[in-house]
Amino acid sequence: MNYKLNRLENGVRVLTVSLPKMESATITIWVGVGSRLEDKKTNGISHFLEHMVFKGSKKRPTALEIAEAVDALGGEFNAGTSKEWTNFYIKARAANIDTAFDVLSDMVLNPILAEAEIEKEKGVIIEEIAMYEDTPMIKIGDVFEQLIFEGNSLSWDIAGTPESVKGISRKDFVDFREKHYFAGNILITAAGGVRKAEVLRLAKKYFGELSPGEKGSQTKGFASKQKKPQVKLHPKKKEQAHFILGFLGNPRGHPDRFTEAILASILGGGMSSRLFSEIREKRGLAYAVRTSVDRYVDTGNFSTYAGVDIKRIDEAIKVALGEHYGVADGKRPISKTELKKAKEYVKGHLALALEDTKDVSAFFGEPELFLRKIETPESIFAKIDEVTTEGILRVAKKLFIPEKLNLAIIGPYKDQARFEKLLA
């Protein structure tokens, strides 16, 4: 897997990952802005703008013309918005990357932003927000981050609120693009059967005239004021309860990230993980159980999700909490066999993901966008192999403390004190 990072004269970064045996390629445009850089009045504008670039551009004034251009390649295209980035991609035959660059650049750099389309899309996004509200497996993540990042823009929903979406105008889009969509805040990744020289030529052709911009986007820093365990209830009459139990964690690029990945795998990374075995297999309390780590530029969290029987949620929370604290206090030590299995689980999942050029693009793109650092799969595998049981114990002791503990719940509950007692 050969990669090369170049920078155009105006500051646009171009990262080429050549996979000569691949017939496909994914071209992704990354912009270093997401919902945490918005203001309250226009919360959701990053995500809204992601929608609007598909509605018509200078060369292809309608959504249909854009779709036909990609369909003519037999390709797929989409976009995504997070709290810290927005991206747009086309995946197609490597022979068609010129057209992919042409379509993507026009969408991202020259959206029409027609007022009639903006008004129409408001209804679509408000329905999307309603869909998430009715999908607790997704919504619980928002509720958890509202709790753990309370008081900071990180706690805001990526899609915004119905009220904020209704208030966004064409001028808001123009001002937002001028502030964030400049050369120094853009990264292009090309992964698959592509050559560096060709990718660089196309990047210069389509992005070389973009304004350099005056300065980078400014993140609103997060500083936790938490002093004790916290609970947030999102009352909802459902047949199933959903909770996330998690701890305030570490930012992107933290040196303990590989150890944390192994710890997450041991606790809730697969069907033989501790939490899956204890909560689902032994007690029949839940169908879905998983542990994950989320990171941002200045903070992060380590969390476990479960969808459980509404009458037995207390038991499930106790078991989950016991497994976390059991690692930290040494009462549930990790065996060498368990450690080896977790390492292979993490490495195996990464290897499988990297069989897709879209995932390769993301693997290299996101770290470069924020950390200005490229890590290869081989270097990550080596770091994972260095993880020790002693290191896991050290990390667990730092992470799993009451002052960092948060519990978010969706279900038919109103008594918050009931759950606060479980965490005390």
* Strand order, sheet with most strands: 1-2-6-3-5-4
**What is the number of beta strands?**
11
Helix content bin: 40-55%
Mean pLDDT: 96
- Work out the count of structural domains: 2
> How many DSSP H or I helices?
16
| Architecture (CATH level 2) name of the largest domain | 2-Layer Sandwich
Shape: globular
Q: Could you give the distance between the termini?
A: 50 Å
User: What's the CATH class label of the largest domain?
Assistant: Alpha Beta
CATH topology description of the largest domain: Cytochrome Bc1 Complex, Chain A, domain 1
CATH superfamily of the largest domain: Metalloenzyme, LuxS/M16 peptidase-like
Fraction of residues in β-strands: 15-25%
Describe this structure as you would to a colleague.
The protein is of the alpha+beta class and 424 residues long. It has 2 domains: 2-207, Cytochrome Bc1 Complex, Chain A, domain 1 (2-Layer Sandwich); 230-423, Cytochrome Bc1 Complex, Chain A, domain 1 (2-Layer Sandwich). 45% of the residues lie in helices and 20% in strands. The chain has 16 helices and 11 strands. The strands form 2 sheets. Strands 1-2-6-3-5-4 form a 6-stranded mixed sheet, with helices on both faces. A 5-stranded mixed sheet has the order 7-11-8-10-9, with helices on both faces. Strand 1 and strand 2 (13-18) form a beta hairpin. Helix 3 (97-109) packs parallel to helix 8 (196-207) and helix 10 packs antiparallel against helix 11. The termini are far apart.
